[in-house]
Design brief:
Structural class: alpha/beta
Shape: globular
Bound molecules: adenosine-5'-diphosphate, magnesium ion
CATH topology: Rossmann fold
Strand order of the largest sheet: 3-4-2-5-1-6-7-8
CATH superfamily: P-loop containing nucleotide triphosphate hydrolases
Number of strands: 8
Helix content: 40-55%
Number of helices: 12
């Protein structure tokens, strides 16, 4: 446990504008993995689908409040936050109501900074804040990027993955230049990896060539236990700690902590 109350949380977006690439699985399991490594974690569900809310064991249809009210300044994070009964981290939950925020925010001043303002009030309470982004480069995602220190990009080693990556890297650069000079690419995480597939080996090697140190050493394998866990409202790391997928995400948590230390010093 970090007992130094003056250290502010590191805020990371888990982002990729493609759907189904493992963002939510990474957000939930990194959160639970960091908890097992004695970190205080807040997981923000920035996707109106509410998958990381449900996957953390919280019923998205039974929420008194959700992230929507925080973004439009009708509630504070402290009023909305829920503890994940299975993961041991806090969650800012979401459901379909959040999609309305896209429209409501447009008319507001500093519409891309609402999450950042809200987070400023709780950043001393956590070591890590993880933001599970929707699969779009929308105003919601912009709020995530504006509030973050860094971006973690989960990706599958497929042919078109590299193409989509350049769009996202350019977006990160633009946000860095125009809105949030603190924002940087923390790293690329290879997920759903199957080493028997030659194309995946090739794309993985290409990633290392192009992005060097920005590619995390941990590789998350394709593992059915990770896919089963959300239907039990649990992170895979908790559902089956001995599985290869869980082990990979624990290792990833350790690598993220190490990388943060390297950036700070
Ligand atoms: P996203 O949030 O980017 O849309 P998800 O994390 O929801 O992606 O993952 C998409 C699907 O792939 C889900 O059904 C999830 O359970 C499954 N999945 C994610 N990572 C793995 C993995 N490493 N092994 C097997 N299935 C996975
Ligand atoms: Mg998702």
């Amino acid at each position: 446990m970090n007992t130094n109350a003056t250290i502010k949380a590191r805020v990371f977006c888990i982002a990729n504008q493609k759907g189904g690439v493992g963002k939510t699985t990474t957000a939930i399991n990194l959160a639970a993995g960091l908890v097992q490594l004695k970190q205080r974690v807040l997981l923000i569900d920035l996707d109106p689908q509410g998958n990381s809310t449900m996957g953390s064991g919280i019923d998205k249809s039974a929420l008194a409040h959700n992230l929507y009210q925080v973004l439009i300044s009708e509630a504070t994070i402290a009023e909305v936050v829920v503890a994940s009964p299975t993961g041991g981290y806090d969650v800012l939950p979401s459901n379909r109501e959040l999609s309305g925020a896209e429209i409501d925010l447009v008319g507001m001043d500093a519409r891309e900074l609402q999450l950042r303002y809200a987070l400023a009030k709780v950043e001393l309470h956590y070591d890590f804040v993880l933001i599970d982004c929707p699969p779009t480069l929308s105003l919601l995602t912009l709020n995530g990027l504006a509030a973050a220190h860094g971006v973690i990009i989960p990706m599958q080693c497929e042919y078109f993955a590299l193409e989509g990556l350049s769009d996202l890297v350019n977006t990160i650069k633009r946000v860095h230049r125009n809105i949030n000079p603190e924002l940087s690419l923390i790293g690329l995480l290879r997920v759903m990896y199957d080493p028997r597939v030659t194309l995946q080996q090739q794309v993985s090697a290409q990633l290392e060539t192009h992005f060097g140190d920005k590619v995390f050493k941990t590789v998350v394998p394709r593992n059915v236990r990770l896919a089963e866990a959300p239907s039990h409202g649990m992170p895979g790391v908790v559902y089956d700690p001995g599985s290869r997928g869980a082990q990979a995400y624990i290792a990833f948590g350790a690598e993220v902590i190490e990388r943060v230390r390297a950036i700070k010093t």
